[in-house]
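Internal tracking record. Fields below are filled automatically when a chain is submitted to the structure queue. Please do not edit lines marked as system-generated. If the sequence contains nonstandard residues, flag them in the REMARKS field before resubmitting.
Queue: standard
Priority: normal
Entity type: single polypeptide chain
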Amino acid sequence: MKSILFSLFVALFFCATPASTKKHGIKVLILCTGNTCRSQMAHGLLKSYGKDLAVYSGGVKAEERVNPKAVMVMRELGIDISDHKPCLIDEYLDEEWDYVITVCDNADKTCPAFNGKVKHRLHIPFEDPSKVTEGTYEFRLNEYRRIRDAINDTFFKLYCDMEERK
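SYSTEM-GENERATED OUTPUT FOLLOWS
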């Protein structure tokens, strides 16, 4: 019972609290299809770079939970995304954003128009490591690491660019 209540609290806090009600510096929304892997890794990485970022993520068809392999490879970097909950982008459509970033082609194609103001809309696609179903467990896990590292490299450069633009 406690875990159900805790899960409900976390879901309400992370998904239902409008982004505009939270204190922030640069507001960033990262989108992908299910909000379970690439967007969650990008969310965790970007948030780890600086306290002045308000980072959110969502999916066009949010799944039930964050991909366990994504959680595992992020933990290897000391970043815990195990408490993240996939959210639908509908939660954020009326908000104002400094950056809205899609990390997969499907999200880029199906991303709805935002009613709020978006200063920068970027499409930075990454392969979906969950699509790798062949090979050993370690091989598949290495695909998650490879994508995580690509996201880390790209988003750190983006973060440095954001800092310069302030």
